[in-house]
Amino acid sequence: LNFTANSTTSRIAHAEMDYYAVAAIEAADTTLYLDSINWTNSTAAAVDVHNCSVTLLNSYIPGGAGNEPFHFNGMPANGHALIKNCVFGAPRGYNDSIEFTGGNRPGPIAQFIDNVFLAAVDDCFDMDATDAHIEGNIFLNVKQDAQRDSSSNPITTGEGNGISELFVIRNIFFNCEHTLLLKDNGTAPMHNNTLVNRTTTA
Fold this sequence. Notes:
There is one protein chain. The chain is mainly beta. The chain contains no helices and 22 strands. It has strands at about 1-5, 10-20, 25-30, 30-40, 45-50, 55, 60, 70-75, 80-85, 85-90, 100, 110-115, 115, 125-130, 130-135, 140, 155, 165-170, 170-175, 180, 190, 195. The strands form 3 sheets. An 8-stranded parallel sheet has the order 1-3-5-8-11-14-17-20, with no helix packed on it. An 8-stranded parallel sheet has the order 2-4-6-9-12-15-18-21, with no helix packed on it. Strands 7-10-13-16-19-22 form a 6-stranded parallel sheet, with no helix packed on it. It is globular.
């Protein structure tokens, strides 16, 4: 499904999307509201959006994609991005669960609330020059599958033409190598998070 420039909100709810060879949902210069969607049986990204406002709720995003399952690039000046109550499977290969670029204070920023990340060998959140509010998420089994120079992290910042400022509150990190990687002058106040069973690659 491809949504192109328009001023209306396109809605998809209570849907199954299977066996797609390219991104299941692509959008540019518009607004999406996605609720209760189950993506399965694919090697492509589930969502790929550019300069869009997005709400993604109560959905299952598989990890079988050959690249980042959720890719976001470019926050509209008066836009929004909310990802809440979703479950993310482990991405295939050395890929992030969410690749996100865009949104800086004092303008709108991304919000990631009450999601579950089952596993990753790279990063769950890769926030490139992006500010974000990250609250109430559960990060599980985030660790390398093989020795490499780049570490594996539930949350990381870096790259792009701006500095990432994250607020990380009330999250749970279980069986992860690290908790947070701040690159390129990123900042992240952390409050009331729980870190359990930190491990390293054998």
